[in-house]
Design goal:
Number of helices of chain B: 0
Number of strands of chain B: 11
Order of helices and strands of chain A: EEEEEEEEEEE
Helix content of chain A: under 10%
Largest interface: A-B, 26 and 21 residues
Largest sheet of chain A: 7 strands, mixed
Shape of chain B: globular
Distance between the termini of chain A: 36 Å
Oligomer: heterodimer
Shape of chain A: globular
Strand content of chain A: over 45%
Order of helices and strands of chain B: EEEEEEEEEEE
Largest sheet of chain B: 6 strands, mixed
Chain lengths: ~120, ~110
Amino acid sequence: GAVVSQHPSRVICKSGTSVKIECRSLDFQATTMFWYRQFPKQSLMLMATSNEGSKATYEQGVEKDKFLINHASLTLSTLTVTSAHPEDSSFYICSARETGLLEAFFGQGTRLTVV
Amino acid sequence: RKEVEQDPGPFNVPEGATVAFNCTYSNSASQSFFWYRQDCRKEPKLLMSVYSSGNEDGRFTAQLNRASQYISLLIRDSKLSDSATYLCVVNRNNNDMRFGAGTRLTVKP
């Protein structure tokens, strides 16, 4: 299957700081990328869908000014958690869908801990 | 009502057992369907797509019933390595992927 690389895999940051997470499709062009959050023992929750070159579409209840998404190229999307708080601690996962295909492939996830 | 609903589980089965998971979706305009598996603290990995005619991949069989808006996954001859959470995924369109909450399976010796 296609390879999606997510970086960093783990990050610890202080409350009030911002954290950027990168999601790259390594061997294909991804028109659409998805960002999810997963709390322990809970399901994946879609945060936003981004299409290359346009603004991301956020799910209800997700603050777009707090979770900044940039999908500047067909192989890279970034999620920036701004002014992070302890309640933002979670597992953040991206997925990317190759142009013209339906299935999506996931990055390895980023475990964010805000202290 | 959630857009994609799955059996809550957990399912605890002995090795060699056959186990079936069900999933229903609420949006009749949904276009494509998948099963993913997720191991503990890892990212989901695509297990198989689900086609209208039903499809099989080794010990795994997926079926789709559009009229009832229902998807199933059957695992035969369960292995210890099948222990994971199985996620039902529904695409409404090219810009949308919705996940069920997942069903946890534990296969015991």
